[in-house]
Amino acid sequence: MDERYDVVVVGGGVAGLSGALMLGRARRSVLVVDAGEPRNAPAAHAHGMLTRDGTPPLELLAAGRAEVARYRVHVEPGEVRAVHQEDGTFTVELADGRSVVARAVLSATGLRDELPDVAGVAERWGTDVLHCPYCHGWEVRDRAVVIVGTNPMAAHAALLWRQWTADVTLVRHTAPALAPEDVARLAATGVRLVDDRATAVDGPSGDLTVRLASGATLPAGAVVVGTRTVARAEHLAPLGLHPVPLLVDGHEIGRAVPADPFGATTLPGVWVAGNVTDLRATVVVSAAAGATAGAQVNAWLVMQDAEAAVARAATGDRERHGEEAGVDGTAVTDDASSDVHGDGPPHGDAGASGDGHAGGHGREHRHGPAHGHGDDGGRHVDPTHGIELPDDLAGMFAPEFWEERYAGARQWSGRPNGTLVDEVGDLPPGRALDIAAGEGGDAVWLAQRGWHVTATDWAAGGLARGEATAAEHGVTDRVTWRQADITSDDGWDDAPYDLVTSHYLHLPPAQRPAAVARMASLVRPGGTLLVVGHHAADLGTTMRRPHVPELFADADEVAALLDPAQWEVVTAEARPRDAVDPEGRPVVLHDAILRARRRS
Predict the structure, then answer these.
(1) What is the rounded distance in angstroms from the CA atom of residue 103 to the CA atom of residue 87?
(2) C-alpha R_g of the chain
(3) Tens digits of residue pLDDT in 326-357
(4) Confidence band (pLDDT; 50, 70, 90) for 414?
(5) Could you give the 3-state DSSP secondary structure of residue 230?
(6) Sign of torsion, CA 569 552 347 518?
(7) pTM for the complete prediction?
(8) How far is it, in rounded angstroms, from Cα 92 to Cα 28?
(9) Burial (0-12, 13-18, 19+ Cβ within 10 Å), 104
(10) Are 177 and 156 within 8 A, CB to CB?
(11) Helical spans, DSSP H, in 476-521
(12) CA distance 74 to 109
């Protein structure tokens, strides 16, 4: 069995199988984990399902399993103990000790009925002790029905059952006192009201006796009880998803997992369907909800794939053409521009290609003595950091250098960096901090995907452009623009973030440890740190990089600045990618990528 799926469906009832059917037909890889405990298993027949009315519940499910199997949906018996989210995917822990991984989860685990503490009720549940007139009313029509009240819906239930039989008795039991208008309705429709408590139900099927605390007895062809219904959602607790109370007149009648009308929970990538979220749903309603949620899950995955494809295509286009496309579709190039792949840095990207900040966050410059980096101008030693720089990068470690750049043409494409898309695309939205955000391409992309982003840069000009772009894309309320320098103590707070990211932030070696430490300190436990830069190996290619080796740190160097007791390094590599140099020659470049998760 595959251990990785597009979707894991938890629960093999009608909601789960209907969702799996939609997903299987959408050519998704699907695993259904079925605990084999459907709520309606005690019932002889399921009703209200067009073309399948009266089918035994277990027979209905067997037919459903056969149908989904035609679309290569895998159904296996088992129980899901917990679902965890990490690095953009969901790990589903099974009771047998195995774990499977999914891009999305559809939970259709139903509910459990908490029955009133009346002797004989549990043993007869689903046969002679009933709850839903639409499920069982026809089968007990014209019989004596005794309703044991447990909640404020007792009078409503009695009036409903009166539609199927004229012989209805409501025993108030633990229900709150009835309102005068309810008493009047019951009396007017011939429903008897007994203000007593039920103690037991006994007798043969169809000829029952309801015993009361007063010693009186009531004959019954069927007994109806109000149950407290609670969603089976313990497996979702690690995700922060919990059932919430459903109140009627201040009285809790059950608990369900909140979701929107399509089954989406507050956590992207997790859907619910059927009784786990709708306590009143019948079989056919649960099936429809499962089908709806399944279609929504597929649509969400389609958009995830499309966004990633757009970002990859944009990256490839820019690399093939050796230019950076402007936000308005025009090209932003000069005779020194080259592999630009997103929005890159001001104060630190010595030849960055995405939004970032630090060191040298410009497009590619023709610097350095070897491999086509020729020194068109002179070189000098930066007086602050003691690093030899090309003359046209003089002052690159000061905000004024970048403000001057942002006063001219747009520096970056406005598109997200490809590595951000690849590494973060599957993470659930939360709070993100974009360090050295430049003109905000990464920040806007994150906001479009539901993140609440704080975008920082030390150049006000870049932030102003980012803010304007956010307004154009309708995400102004999701991005906060803050002027701050990661190498300074000013402008930072202690608020933790789910994601802290920095692309092509090339700092002088002396500033690197403190900057990485500050980034790390702003990641919440369980959160992600993503630091991406150009690799020094690129200096040996024909791509025009400023020949300043001190500014290029590989991923292992950055990882070494993290405390291993607090951090789990997920990725530390020099990742190759194909590009084209300014003369049109193919070249393989490398990005230094560090991705780490802060231990909980």
Answers:
(1) 10
(2) 32
(3) 222 222 222 222 333 344 433 333 333 334 44
(4) low
(5) strand
(6) positive
(7) 0.54
(8) 17
(9) buried
(10) no
(11) 512-521
(12) 17
